[in-house]
Every structure is written in C-alpha cells, then in structure tokens.
Amino acid sequence: MKLRKVLIALMLLSVWGGSMIFADATVQKVRVIVNGSELDENGVLQDGKTYLPLRQIANTLQALTTWDENTKKVTVYKPNVHMFLFKASDKEVTFGNVDKNNRVSFMVFAQIDNLLTSVSAVKISIFDPFGNEKIIQQQAVNVTKDNFWFRTSDFKYFFDSAGKYSVRFFMKANDNDDWGQVSEKIITVQ
C-alpha cells in the first residue's frame, strides 16, 4: 500500500514537472527596448504573440493611460506637448544651457494639442542630475478640448551642480490617476 502511494506521487510529480517544462518552453521572455532604453519589465512571447508591459511602454513614450474598471478597457493617449523655457528677465529669450552656480529666474510655456481626453490637473517639475524633484507649478485644470496653452509663474532655481537637469510636464486625466509624464526638456549645466 505504501509503495503504491509512493508510485502515484512519483507519477504525479513527473507529469507536473513535465508540464512545467513544456509551459516554460511555450512562453519565452522578450527583452523590450524603446528608443534605445531597455524596459525594466520583460515582455512575453506566447503562441507567436508578444505581450508587453503597457504602462511601462506608455510611460516611456510619454503617453497617458486610463483604466475603465466597468468595461475592463485601458486607453492610451499621446498628446503633443511642446515646452519652451523663457528667462524671466527677457520673455523673448529661450534657454537650454546654464553656467554652474547660477540662480536663474524662468518660466515654462507649454503648447498642448492632439489631446483626446479630458485633463483634471497639470504639473511641471524640475529634476536635478541626481533625480531630486522640485515642483515648479501644479494646479487643477478643467480641460475638455483638444488643445490648450499653459504658462507657469516665474520660478527661481539655483543650478548648483554640473549635469543634465530635466523639466518635465505631467498630466492627470482624472483626480484619482497617477501623474503621467507627457513631455521633457533638458537644461545642460556646465
């Protein structure tokens, strides 16, 4: 009786192990590279179809995603967002380079079009070369049209380290959504 139970257990383990090996052989991990950068999460190739991590791809492409729980539908929106950085002292001079240890007063002007969803809030932040965020301006908006312009107040910032600083534009489709980055400008500090 004991030998019979051991044999049955061994047969079950063999079948289970064989099916796990077969399942692993039919599902392959796929490296995903977008614009030269590899994503943290891998895609999966199964039965000739590739399944990709949608939120990570949307974030990399600077697009918004919305999830509708009722219909189980995710929608990706990629608005065109063009940002311009103007020195506060001369509203007609754009800039992108700054000398180290300088305090610059500037404002951000953004032109948004091809916006195919409503937006509840916008945020513009600057990130230093170490990834630290300083919010330039954040506010609730009620945008339901496909284009709008946005201008920040004048903002003073001290560029104390050499490197790349990024000014990023974020949107929220709904108040309960996460911020989605939709544009980025780089300021080089030497």
From TrEMBL:
InterPro entries: Cu_amine_oxidase-like_N (IPR012854), Mao_N_sf (IPR036582)
Highest rank taxon of the organism: Bacteria
Pfam family, any one: Cu_amine_oxidN1
Keywords, ordered alphabetically: Signal
All residue ranges annotated as the Copper amine oxidase-like N-terminal domain in the record: 34-113
Secretion signal, residue range per the UniProt entry: 1-25
Keyword check for Signal: yes
UniProt key word Methyltransferase: no
Protein name per the record: Copper amine oxidase-like protein
